[in-house]
Amino acid sequence: MSKALCSSRFRQVVTHAIIRFGRAVLIACLILMAGAAAADQSALPRVTGKEIQALVAKNKGKVVLLHFWASWCPPCAHEFPALVKLYTAYKPRGLEVIAVSMNDLSEMRDVMSFVRAQNPPFPLYIAGTVEKTFYRSIDNRWTSALPLSMIFDKTGKLRYFHEGARTYNQFERDIQSLLE
Amino acid sequence: MPRALLLLVVVFLMTFVPPSAARQSKTVSGLAVGEMTPSFPVLDVTGPHKGKSVCYVCESQDAPVVFAFFRQTGNEMASLVRKLNELARQNQDIRVVAVVIEGQESQPWLERVAEENGITIPLTVFRNGKDDIAVKVYKLNASASNTILVSAKRRVVANLVNVNAENFKMVTNGVSKVIRKR
Lengths: 180, 182
Known about the structure:
The complex is a heterodimer. Chain A has 2 domains: 1-41; 46-179, Glutaredoxin. Chain A is 54% helix and 17% strand. Chain A has helices at residues 2-41, 49-58, 74-90, 108-118, 132-138, 168-179; strands at 46-47, 63-69, 95-101, 124-127, 148-152, 158-163. Chain A has a 6-stranded mixed sheet. In chain A, strand 3, helix 4 (108-118) and strand 4 (124-127) form a beta-alpha-beta unit. Mean pLDDT of chain A is 86; it is low at 29-41. By secondary structure, chain B is α/β, with parallel strands linked by helices. Chain B has a single domain (27-181), classed as Glutaredoxin, CATH 3.40.30. A 7-stranded mixed sheet of chain B has the order 2-1-5-4-3-6-7. In chain B, strand 4 (95-100), helix 5 and strand 5 (123-125) form a beta-alpha-beta unit. Chain B is globular. Classes of the chains: A alpha/beta, B alpha/beta. The A-B interface holds A 70-76, 102-104, 106-107, 110, 130-132, 135, 143-147, 164 and B 36-39, 41, 49, 52-55, 57-59, 61, 128, 133, 136-137, 154-155.
């Protein structure tokens, strides 16, 4: 009788241990998966010239400010807060900002430091390549100067092409003229 | 007779071939005149952005810039850096930047050269050495000891390869060309 009780108790302990082990494995997997998701968030999606054009086309009906920048470009860092302010002020009226980093893919850590410092609320991407072909695929006039801002009207037509940094007021003037 | 012919050839060469042409390098390196200068980052070792990655092309926008790319550090580079520094001192409107292609490890040397010679132009290095994307984008030839590009309005105005103390005047001439155009 006592032997049977002992055996049943042993089975119970083993079963509990297996359940506890399974639960621990499951939790560990969930933690690992969460870690992987966080890692994904520490990188920007890569885009080609064609994909950027598609992104602009997808936003027809809105005024789109397509912006190119890099973490090592001093005028870009200086100008970026104006973009954030502009987006916050004009998004409700139909402005969309798409920002593309022209950093090399190996510089992702610098890119993310820049992003964390600027904390932009609009979508961000990184150019798939920083070779001449990419610049050409965006616009033949682009000398590769940074920053570059291209502003499209609600029909998707390019209306402004600005190489070099701009102020909030300059951006606002362009945006207002297209939102009216 | 053959000796007379040889003498004739020597006299002809000495008369009609200028000595500078005989010395001039045939090595091709760097963006050609008229090509646009793409934005690229360097690791600033002694400049105003010391310790950070920075794009001097971006910062200069349309202003004239002299980029001196050196394959490696050494006495020849130090001598040219002194000359470039003097050039920048005499032409305040022009930005001069020296870039070492191979050499994260050359940073202490660059700091020492800058300190000992009172160099104020930024001395920089490519972060990824000869594998840096800028080497490809700027078409820098690994066999050239240096490549000096004078640019204005983001276009190359002068491309000079294997510059040394003797033919440095080529750089001065390139800069003068930019100043005249402004």
